[in-house]
Structure formats: C-alpha cells, structure tokens
Amino acid sequence: MNCLFCKIIAGEIPSAIVYQDEDCVAIRDINPQAPTHVLVMPRRHFCCLTTAVAEDPALVGRLMQACVKVAQLEGLTQDGYRVVTNIGENGAQTVKHLHLHVLGGTKMSEKMS
What we know:
27% of the residues lie in helices and 22% in strands. The protein is of the alpha+beta class. The chain has a single domain, classed as HIT family, subunit A. A hairpin with a 7-residue loop joins strand 2 and strand 3. It starts with a helix and ends in a 9-residue tail after the last strand.
C-alpha cells in the first residue's frame, strides 16, 4: 500500500508525534491551519470515516477519545477547539486514510472553509 499515513505510522516517514496508543497516532500537521493543528489517525487503514463506522464503530469512539486527550495535552480544553474530518473529494479529503484534525489556539470562524 502506498499510503502516506500508513508510512508515517510504520515509522518510515519522520513526523512530530504528539500522542500515540494501541489504536492511533497523533502528529502535528505540516501545513497547520491554526496555531495548534494535530492529525489523529488510526493505526489500521480505513479510507474514511464512513468505512471505519461500518467496519469498526468502537474504534471511532476511541479516536474521539484520543482527540480529547490531544486537546488536553495541547492545553486547548479551557478555551475550546475543533475536531474535523474530511470525507471524499467533495469533503476536501486529500489523504485517503481516515484522520481527524484537532484545531485550536485561536478563535475559529463560524464559516465553512
């Protein structure tokens, strides 16, 4: 498989790991859209949230728990943060491996971007 995130998870591509556990790896985004921008991705390859919910819905809950843990580690829980995932071409998904964006450190716009 030629998946960028699978290679990061396997340690083939260096990255700034913020958090990891048996289910996921969280890394700093190399093109941050906020002062704090961390990607939380499952170790197991799923193309997107739709597939993960169908095949392993409990994992999706654990990924959300990891997002909260990342927010705590990054000091975002007091003022708030955003968790986003993009699905498919119309949802602006650029890497076909499920990942959740944890964004914070600034007031977020209410507009869709």
